[in-house]
Amino acid sequence: MFIRGMVKGLSVTLKHFVQSYLGHTGIRDGQRPDPTLGGFFTVQYPEEKLPMFPRFRGALMHLRDPETGEPNCTACNLCVRACPQQCIEVEGEGKGKERKVTAYRYDLARCIFCRLCVESCNFNAIELSQEYELSTYSRDMVWDLEKLLALGDQYGVHETGKAW
Amino acid sequence: MLKTETITLNLGPQHPSTHGVFRLKLQLDGEAVRDLEPVMGYLHRGIEKLSEERTYVQVVPLTDRLDYVCSMTNNQAYAIAVEKMAGIEVPERAEYIRVIMAEFTRIINHLMAVGFLWNELGAYFTPVVYCFRERERVLDLFEMTCGSRMMCNYMRPGGVSVDLPEGFIPQAKKLNDHLKTFVDELDRLLSENEIFLSRAVNVGVLPADVAINASITGPMLRASGVLYDIRKVDHYSIYDRFDFEVPTCEHGDVWDRYYQHILEMYQSVRIIDQALDGIPQGEVMNKAAAKATRRPPEGEAYGRIESPKGELSFYVVSDGSGNPYRLRIRPPSMINLSALKEMCQGHKIQDIVIILGSVNLTMADLDR
Amino acid sequence: MEFVRDLFVNIGAWFSGWLGGFLPAWAVTLIMGLIGVIILVVIGLSSVLVLTLGERKVIGRIQDRPGPNRWGPFGIFQPVADGIKMLTKEDIVPRGADYWMHLLAPIIIIVPALLIYAVLPFGAGVRGTDLNIGILYIVALGSIGTVAILMAGWSSNNKYALLGAFRVVAQLISYEIPMVLSIVAVVLLSGSMSMVKIVESQTVPYIVAMPMVFLVYLVSAFAELYRAPFDMIEADSELVAGYFTEYSGMKFVMFFMAEYINLMAMSAIITTLFLGGWRFLGVERLLPLLSPFIFFAKCGAMIFLFWWVRGTFPRIRIDHLLALAWKFLVPLALVNLMIVGLVDKLVEGALLTGVVLLVANIVEVVIVLAILSLVGHKTRSKRLQRITARPR
User: What phi, psi does A14 have (nearest 5°)?
Assistant: First the structure.
């Protein structure tokens, strides 16, 4: 039939039209949608937000020792050297086992969220959070140690790579 | 005799259908195109130069951004080149994971190619939305594994960076079965459409000898009838253990290039099925790799793979220090574009747009 | 109860009776005419509001997404937002453009579209007027829009806009011929050019009696409305700019409003000519109140078809488009006309005529398919073999 191809195409779109009213590949039980479901696919942000996977790479955060409450970071500069974009600057004081971090500047505008810094850290000090709503109205996107520690407290993570 | 002039028209860098920033200077005689000259370089970011200042592991996030649609295969090509140069072995489980991720990447690239070809034909985004919906599901798998949907930074020299999470294999199997039915549905929606047939058959024909002379690789070459797939020729990774065919089409026009993408998606689904069934346990990263890539011995290596767009290869030269001395990338999109003038002879403007769409470019790959 | 049974006609009669109580006859006619005009223009312009939103929602649903749903529940204030956006744009007239033609082109394209609503029969007795040359009036008005497009292209002082205008005009005038020939077939069968009499003579709707004529008319309607798959003027992936490139603000809105007003009018014409107008299995004689609803329901089905096709098909190239009109549709329309004429003359009785026509149309479809497969889309059939031979 000479318009058979077009009629087949029309049948597929009609099926999608009807299915979008009947089915919903929405967020169920806080999980991502099942791949086999059909139907309405849009997630109505900001009323609904997709849940992120545990391994999601968001902005950087600092971790604390759960007993003492001190940051784990010893200012060893391994993350500074591992970062491809040179977005971290660290200052510390003390020597040997008592070395602690005093200032940590993380430039969010340069970060590419590649996680090489976390992979290089030996002291369980940093991890990537699940924070992706990072837009600001001004250009001060350099985060200091307090903000990074606050983010770590908010996510309640104590061990690097736990999700991995 | 009539004295006619040709008009010079500029398909400018900002245009909805040039797949990124790409400029095309056309000489038109009425509607027919007499000559065309592409102007490239609007998206050049100097990745080859930047990589000379970074260590071998720090280059991997840079290679993600080469062809942002298929970041896993870019990582794989670089990893294979460095492994050849430094003599690193890859554990078996890592090879299986690499094959699974590479074939999923092939599927998502072909979905995007088909979707955007139809967007240029004027189908008002419906095939785009269907293809991208399936693409989202595959990207969910990538996010589950490595934390990021597009800039994966996953395949490192020596293996892969982390092991698969727990729910990956059942989810991947479910998705794979669903993709098979989806490609059937896409075929039903698109392939036999008479309007598409009248617009795409015998348009933009690329003869096989022209394609071979122009070093074209990938689906474009196979659509012209040449059976050349680097997975079968080079036997890299563990593709020899899987049973799959390499489809070809005969005529090399736009319809054949579109149908080639559909056929290759079926073969990728087959490979993923076999890989998911046979994946062994084990470690995923060679422990000696970190030391070997810190300061590899002097030498050079050429590593190539069959990326979804064609032959993607890295030529890595090391001078004994921790940074690569030179990293040369062979971009499949740029080489595939070189035959554009031959393909577009005598066609009209509306055809140029769909021929450009059927070449399946990503400007980031072309300009690096 | 009697009053409600034929509500719209009775309200009109009551109102003109009340006015006649204290006004002379000519004033009553004038006022009733003005009210009719206002109602029809409101129907025409509000169809734009409903159709733009409906199109975006239906095409969205085809693509598994909701369409506009931020402004108001189900997005019903979205057209208001679009209108406010359009009104706040600057009105630019290019230098060197012919100012009066530039100003008149949007007006000339929208006024004939609105004038068509005067003869459309929305229900039993619910209409603007019943001209006895109704369908001829509609065909004549449809041609004026073509002139407006040429004016728009010419007055923009932009050679690409002019080329775009030439293409659109070529498309529009090519497809008027099969359209008019199909209309002649309908007029032949119903015996009158008046829209009301065409509806009244459809004991069996003409889509059932002569589906080939309906198909030819449908394809021509898609092209006349420059909608998908014939919408290369709106294509943003084409290089040659459309005729409305140099327009902005309210004038630009007029061109798009004209497209949607034409869409509603064309659906109404198709409903009248082929689907049986306001009639539905005799319900409209029991309860004439329902007849406008039946009419708009059928119109809605046609409009849904237009939206459905837009969401599915790619564009046709300009040379294929013109070849389709001249080489395929015109001969087909002439053959249809011949068949209808023969059957109408030889067969007596409405029902028998319908059945014979249906059989004749089916025979015609078979013959056309046979000719097409012989004429040779050999390359295409090889590709189709490729598809069916694919290993599953």
Answer: -65, -35
Cβ atoms of residues A59 and A134 within 8 Å: yes
Please indicate whether, in this complex, the C-beta atoms of C61 and A1 are within 8 angstroms of each other.
no
Residue of A112, A117, A129, A131 to mutate for B, most B C-beta atoms under 10 A? A112
Which amino acid type is present at position C221? A
Distance from CA of C39 to the nearest CA of B (A): 35
Please give the Cα distance from B114 to B261 (Å, whole number).
7
pTM (global) more than 0.80: yes
**CB of B114 closer than 8 Å to CB of B182:** no
Residue C154 sits at φ, ψ, to 5 deg, of -70, -45
The domains found in chain A, sorted by start residue, are 2-37 (no CATH), 60-155 (3.30.70.3270)
Dump pLDDT digits (tens) for B72-105.
999 999 999 999 988 889 999 999 999 999 999 9
Q: How many CB atoms lie within 10 A of CB B7?
A: 12
Checking ipTM against 0.90, whether it exceeds it is no
* Burial of C224 per CB tally in 10 Å (0-12, 13-18, 19+): buried
Helix pair angle (C250-270, C99-115), 10° resolution = 30
Closest residue to A10, CB basis, from C63, C312, C373: C312
Q: Which of residues 42-61 of A touch C (CB under 8 A)?
A: 42
Structure tokens that stand for C331 in this block:
């001969």
Query: Where in chain C are the domains?
Result: 2-383
H-assigned helices in B191-238: 194-200, 208-213, 219-223, 230-233
Strand partners, A89: A105
